[in-house]
Amino acid sequence: MVALLRQHHFVLNMDLRTRRHSGMILQLAVLLWCSHGAIGKDSCDGPLVSNLPQSSFRSSSQLSNSHGPGFAKVNRRDGAGGWAPVESNKYQWLEVDLGERTEITAVATQGRYGSSDWVSSFLLMFSDTGCNWKQYRQEDNIRAFTGNSNADSVVQFKLQQPVFARFLRLLPLDWNPNGRIGLRLEAYGCPYKSDVARFDGSSCLLYRFSPNPTSSQTAKDIISLKFKTLQNSGTLIHTEGQDHTITLELHKGKLLLHLRKDKSVSPGPESHMVVSLGSLLDDQHWHHVAIERFSGHLNFTVDKSSQQIQVPAELSPSEINEISYGGVQCHGSQRVMSRRNFHGCLENLLWNDVNVIDLAKQQQQVSITGNVTFTCAEPVSVPVTFAGAQSFLQLPGAAQQQRDGGGVAVAAVGVAISLQFRTWNRAGLLLTFDLQQQAGSLWLYLSEARVRLQVHKAGGYTILVDVTAGFGLNDGQWHSIDLTARRGHLTITVDKEEDSTAHASPSFPVVSGNNLFFGGCPDSENNQECRNPFNVFQGCMRHIHVDNNAVDLIKVQQMLIGNYSDLQIDMCGIIDRCSPSHCEHGGRCTQSWSTFHCNCSNTGYSGATCHSSVYEKSCEAYKHQGNTSGLYYIDVDGSGPIKSQLIYCNMTDKTWLVIQHNNTELTKLKASSGINQHLAYFNYSADAEQLWAIITQAEHCEQEVLYHCRKSLLLNTPDGSPFTWWVGRTDEPQTYWGGAVPGSQQCGCGLQGNCIDSDHYCNCDADRKEWATDSGLLTHKENLPVRWVVVGDIQRPGSEAAYKVGPLKCHGDKNFWNAAFFNKETSYLHFPTFHGELSADISFLFKTTAASGVFLENLGIKDFIRVELSSPTEVVFSFDVGNGPFEVRVETGDVALNDDRWHRVRAERNVKEASLRVDGFPNATQKAPADGHIHLQLNSQLFVGGTASRMKGFLGCIRSLQLNGRTLDLEERAKITPGVRPGCPGHCSSYGELCQNQGRCVEMYNGFSCDCGLSAYAGPFCQREVSADFKPGTSVQYTFKEPYELNRNISTQSSSIYSDLKLRGENVSFSFRSSQSPALLLYVSSYYREYLAVLLNRNGYLDVKYKLQNSRDAEVFRTSVRNLANGQLHRVSIRRLSETVSVQIDQHEREDFNLTSDAEFNAIKSVVLGKVHESGELDPEIARLNSQGFSGCLSVVQFNSVAPLKAALLYPNTSPVVVIGSLAESTCGSPSPANPYPAETTHSLSDHLGTVGTGELIVNAIKSDSALIGGVIAVVIFVILCALAIMARFLYRRKETFHTQEPQGIKPEADSPEYPFHSEPNSQNILSENQKEYFI
C-alpha cells in the first residue's frame, strides 16, 4: 500500500503541473485509499482474558473456592466477584495462560465486586513457558503500575512497547488498607504468528541468493530476527560478499557487529570494525535485532536501543552473496572460525521481507547443516533474585537431610554444594552455615569481586580456613561455584576452571548443620544460627545443588521446603544500568545492583552523568573571571555534543579568540616546469563543527590573507578568469581577496580605489616585474575559515609569488551579554518547548531588586520544570517527571540576592539526581528515586521571566540564558514583547571590582570597560605591569609645567606663578629589580631647587631623601630592610602627608618618619626615572650617584596620579615625556622573570575541578635541566658579589655629609580627605578618550 501511495503522489505531482482538475480527482482517490487502509488495518486491542476457561487461571492461593482465580475477569460478578488470596502479602500472584504466544498491548484491573478489596499498585510479569518470568518496565525504570482506588472502576494501561508472551502474571504490591487483595483482570491484544527454528550449537542455515545479479543488491537492505538463549556466546548471522563479511555475534551476553574487509579471519585494525549493543541477552527471553544498510550507513537495533554507524569507505559493504544463520560453518570448512555456533531459538528470520525459515521448511534456496528443528523446546531454568537487604534463602542442611528410612540420623561425611550466580556488586554473602557439633561457622562470600571462603572457630574470631578463587566476578555474567569437602580436603572451584580453583586441608570435618543460608540471614533477634558480618548478596542464583541434589525452587516458593524472605523466585531481575549508558560525553559507566556511577575523569564534563561542561563557552566568559591572555579550553556549546578545544585567548582591548592552523608562515613559490597550480590545505587546531560554532557565536571574525607577487597575476582583473582563489566553509570557490567583499572579484585596493594600476582591481594584476603586495582581512563569517588556497599564475618564466594565510581570529560573544529587562510582573518571553527528557541543564545570570519571581517555567500534562527566586535569600529549582513534585533549594544566608548585582544560577536534572548552584555557594543536590519515571515530558511553551498564569512574574534582568548548551536569544524576542526591553545596563556594580590598581569602571551597553588613565598598570583590567629595562644612560623625564615667566627673573611674581603646584603630600609607588648599589631610582625636581630622591645606598638599603627648604640640609630617611640590590623584584610604596612620611617595602612592616623642615613641595617641575641629564644644580651626593646611571628594571611607576613610565612606553606622542637612551617595554616586572613564556598560560584539563571555575592558570614551567643550571649560576654570582661587597667595605669608606633619621614607631595609615592622591592640580590624566581600553 505504501508503494501504491508513493505512486499516486508521484502522479499527483505530475498532474498538478499540467491539469488542475485531474489532479484534484487523483487527490480524492488517494484520500479514499488512505481511509480504506486505515479502516482495513487490523487493530490489536481485542480482549484476551474474558473468554478464557477457568483452567487458564492460576494463583498463589485463594481465600475460598468462590474467590478462585477463574473469577478474576473484568466486569464479571461470578463467584465472589473476583480473586482474593488467603493472606494479603507481597508473595501473592495471579496468573493467566493465554494458550499461545500473543501480542499484548494493554492491561486493565478492577477490584473485587461488591467489596472493599482492590489492588492499588502491582507488578506485571510475562513468560512463554510459565517459568523464568520477566518483569515489564515502563521507561526501562518504572517497575510498578498504579492500580485501583475503589472496587468498581476499571483502570487501563496502554503498554509503551507490546509484549509477546503466552503467560501473564500480576503481583500485587499495595492494596486497600481497610480491605484485602481483590482483583479482576483483562488484557488486550491480538494473535501473534511466527516462524521459529531451534539450533543446538552445531547446526546452521545457509541462504544463497538467486543467480540474478540484481536480486541481492538494493538501495536498502534489512536483516531482522528475534532470538532467545541461555548461552552467553554464539554466532547468529554471518554474511559473505564479494570483498567483505558481516558477522553478528553474541559475546558474554552482548551483541557484537563485525565488519571485515577481504574476508580476513585475523584482520588488521584498518580492515575490521566492531560495534557493541545490548546486554544480558542470555536471559532466555526474546530479543529483537535489526540491521539496516543504506548509503554508507548501518542502523543497528537491539530491542529499544539503536545506533547509527557511519561505515568507512574501505569497509562499506558491497553485494551480499549468502547469509548463514546460527554459525559460520555453513560457508564451508575453509572458512570455519574459532567462534562457537548459536545454541537457542531464532524467530522470523527476514532478509528484505524474505522469510528465510519459511524457505528452509520448503527447502528452497536454504541448506540446513546439523540438527535444526522448527519448534522452540526450551530447557527449564528457575532463577531466584536477591533484591534487597532482607533477602535470604534458607534450605535444610546435612543434619536434616542425612536420615535413613526410619528417620534415624545418618552421619554425614562432608559437603557438596554448587550454584550459579550473577551480580554487579563486588561484595556480598553467597552461603553460610554452622558446622556440626558447633565446631564453627563457614562463610562463602564475594570480596573485591573474588570468591572467598572462611571457616571461623566457634565462639571466637580465629580463622581456621581462608582461601580465595576467581576474579572479576561482578561483570553481570553467570558464574558457577563448586564447594566440596571430603576426608580432610576442601576444594572451591569457580567456572569449572583449574586456574580458578583453591584448596585447603582442614584438620576437622566440614559438615553443615541444620540449615544452609544463601544470600543473607533472617532478621530476627532470636536467630543464633546465621550471622552475616559481610554485605548481603544482591543478584541472581540458579542451579543450586546440595549434596548433588538439585533444589526445587518452585517448592520453596510454595513453602513446601525451606524458608525465604524478599525473594523473586522464578525470575532474574538483574538490570544493566550501563546499557544503554546514561553517562554522556565519553564518561565511563560502572554499576552496582541498585545504581550506576559515571567516571568523568579526563572528559571535560562533570555531574552525575558527565552532562555539564567544566569549561566556559568563550574567551569572554574567562575574561570576566579576571583571567589574562593564555590557552584555555573552550566548550562552545556547553553540555552539547561538540567537544571542548584548547584555544588561545588574547585578552587585550578586545577579547580575541585565535585559532591557528598548520601553515601560518609565508610560503614562497617560483616558476616550475610542469606545475600549473599550487594547492595548499589548511588544517586547523579545531575541527569543522567546532569552528562553525565559534564563528556563529562571535560578533566578528577575520582572517588575514597576503599575496606577494612579481609577474604573477592574482585575480586577473578586471575581466579575466581568476588565477588564484580560495575555498572556505561553504566548499565554494571564492574569487575575492582580503579587504574586498564576496562576489566582487577584487582586492582591498580595488575597493578603496588605490591600486598601483587603476585599470586593475588588484596590485598584482598589474603584472609588473617589481614586487607588489595584495593583503587584507577576510571578514565575511559565512565563508570563513580559509580551508584551501589555489595559486595559478606561477608557471611563466620570471613568475614569483608568496602567500600567507593568518590564523582565524574572532572577538565578541553574542551569547554572553544577551539580556532582557522585565519591568512588569505580568510580562514574559515565550520560546518553543524545552526538550530535556533525560538530561536538562539550565544556566543564566540575573539581577533584581525584587524579593521574589519566577525565572522560567515549562509545563506538561503532569510534568513541569521551574526555577524561581522564592525569597531574597533563596533560589528553588522544582520539577515533576511523574513521581510527584521535586525541589532543590539553595539558601544564601545573610547574602541578599536582590542587591541589583549579577548572580549566576546553574540547575541540572538527570536520571540520577538534581542539583542547583547559585554563585559560589555550596551545591545543593537531591537524589532521584531508584525506581520511577525518568523522562521529563513537556508540551507547553517555555516561559521566561514569568508563568503561563501571569502570576509571580520576575522584575529585573536575565542574561545569557542557556538550556542544554543552547543560548536563547532574549534580546531579539524582547524587541517584539511589551513590558520587556532588550539589553540590561548597570554592569559595573557586579564587575567593577575587576578593574584593579585604581582602574575606573565605565558602563557600556553590552558590558563595561576599565579606564586605566589614573593607573600605572595597563591591560583590560588595569592589571598588566608596565615595565622596562634601564641601562646606565637611559632616562625618562615627565615634565609637569613650563614656567613662561622664568626669563624675566621677577622674584615678586615667582610665588604666584607656582602657587598652584604646591604639594603637601605625595603618593609614590613602583617596583624595581637591580644588583647595582649605590643607584638613583627616582628623582622629583622643583623649579625652586627642592627635590625628592629615592635611591639605594652603597649597603643596599633604600633611602628616601627630601629637600623641601633651601636653607636647610636634605633629610634622609633610611629603611631597615637589608640588601635590596639582590636582583629580586621589590615593591616600594612611599606616602607623605604634611610632615609624616611612610615607607613600605614588599610585605615588610611599614616604617614612619617625620620631616623637620618645611612640609610644602613647591613648584614641581618633573619626575625623572634613571639618569638625570639636567644635572647642573643637583645635590653633590645625588650628582655622584647620577653619574653612574641606573641599571635594572623599573615597573608600574606612579607619582600621585601620573604614571611616567607608562606614558613613555605606551603614549610617547601624546604625553609630556622625554626619553633619552634605549627604552622598550619588557616583562622584567613579572614576579617570575626567568620564565621565557610568561604570557603563555594553559587551562589544564586535569585541574578542571579546581582551577577552571576560579580562573586560575598554570604557567608553563621551564625544564628541570634549565632550572638546575640556573641555580648553579646563581650560586656562583652570589659568591662573587659577596666578595666584592667585602672588598668595597674596606676600600671605600665615606662618612655621610647629611643628616639621617631612624624610623619611628608604626603609626596608623592616614586616610584623611586632605590626602593629596589624585586631587592635586598637577594630577594629569595621560589617557585621552580614544586611548581607553574597552572590551565588549
Automatic annotation (TrEMBL):
Subcellular location: Membrane
Span list, region Disordered: 1301-1329
Domain EGF-like: 574-611, 985-1023
Residue ranges annotated for the Fibrinogen C-terminal domain, each copy included: 610-661
Disulfide feature: 957-984
F5/8 type C domain segment(s): 34-190
GO cellular component term of the entry, any: membrane
Any coiled-coil regions, as ranges: none
UniProt KW keywords: Disulfide bond, EGF-like domain, Membrane, Repeat, Signal, Transmembrane, Transmembrane helix
InterPro entries: ConA-like_dom_sf, EGF, FA58C, Fibrinogen-like_C, Fibrinogen_a/b/g_C_dom, Galactose-bd-like_sf, Laminin_G, Neurexin-related_CASP
Entry membrane topology: Single-pass type I membrane protein
Transmembrane segments: 1267-1292
Laminin G domain mapped to chain residues: 196-376, 382-572, 818-984, 1045-1228
Gene3D superfamilies on file: 2.60.120.1000, 2.60.120.200, Galactose-binding domain-like, Laminin
Signal peptide, first to last residue: 1-40
Statement: the UniProt record of this protein carries the keyword Transmembrane: yes
Annotated Polar residues bias: 1320-1329
Family: Belongs to the neurexin family.
PANTHER family: CONTACTIN-ASSOCIATED PROTEIN-LIKE 4 (PTHR15036:SF40), PIKACHURIN-LIKE PROTEIN (PTHR15036)
Name of the molecule in the record: Contactin-associated protein-like 4
